[in-house]
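BUG: 3D viewer hangs when loading the predicted structure for this chain

Environment: internal workstation, default settings.
Expected: structure renders.
Actual: progress bar stalls at 90%.

Input used:
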Amino acid sequence: MATSNDIVTATKGQEEQNVLISEKELFDQCGPVHLTAIDWENVAHQRSVAASLVQGVYILERDKQEKRKGSQALAPPWWRHFQFELYRVLVDDVDSCIFGAIYKFAPSKSYFDGSKDKSQRFVIAFRGTLTKGDAFSRDIQLDVHILRNGLHQTSRFETAIQAVRHVVATFGSSSIWLTGHSLGAAMAMLAGKTMAKTGVFLDAFLFNPPFLSAPIERIKDKKVKHGIRFATSVITAGLAFAAKHKNVNNQSGDTFVALSAWTPCLYVNPSDPVCAEYIGYFEHRENMDTMGAGVIEKVATQHSLGGLVLNFMGKECDEPLHLIPSANLTVNLTPPSDFKEAHGIHQWWKPDLLVESKKHQFT
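Structure tokens produced before the viewer hung:
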């Protein structure tokens, strides 16, 4: 028979366990439970499912850290709600953390109503930086690699791209999604760009992807902002022409046009400095074209000013990750309460989300 001390101890143990569980980890409390039926041609549904599967990767690693297994695991509802199963987890060989997952669509027989199915068969998802647990130091190292344009040289990306190539080689490139958030969005973008260079164009859903540039978008005065961007474009285009004339090595422009047929979906928040520059990046291209300076911008947008300068100095510079020709850009217009909300993954499946979307195609 349990004593009063046993009951108190058990109660305290349960309370301590609950403290370790964040509300945002619980699908029933924080997930898109309003999506009881998925229309795979609905862009809002696609966005919500992709974001939820990324969240599933975050929770997979948290389950691992907190030793939550079986019925205590919190990750499965994030994919089972949409009738996916976990096909494979992607583990970093440096710290053994889970940084990605491959999901396979496995609907029940009752799912189909006789109409043509538009769902994807596989989703490859990558999480961003975790601020808790053993994965933090390794994630920060990867963030630094992004800053140095060296993500492609890491073993984590090698694991990721091998997984992508395996799925494509085994099941074909159709009906495969790439998705990720923050660091994970950078990973998915690099994987998508790598595959696109070989002629394989995968659907991609990139949430808060890092854009490594001076924070011009945070300038409130539109004239000042446009002036800075215009001057930067002129200088960049001039250096690009000079580099070509002098045969200075620069890889950015060589692959840029080849990537133009790949049109990933980018989801950015203007209050998030990590990704906000994508708004100005594409907006400026249109402005330059409108004012008759499209030729200058067409050259400038293919190159990194910093990379050109380094190349002129005789130093090799890897292709900047954020240089991307085409995209379906979706901007969250809902004012966030703080940076954490502006950068978070949870914003992207809210049913009352106010967004503005536009396709930008490089021609």
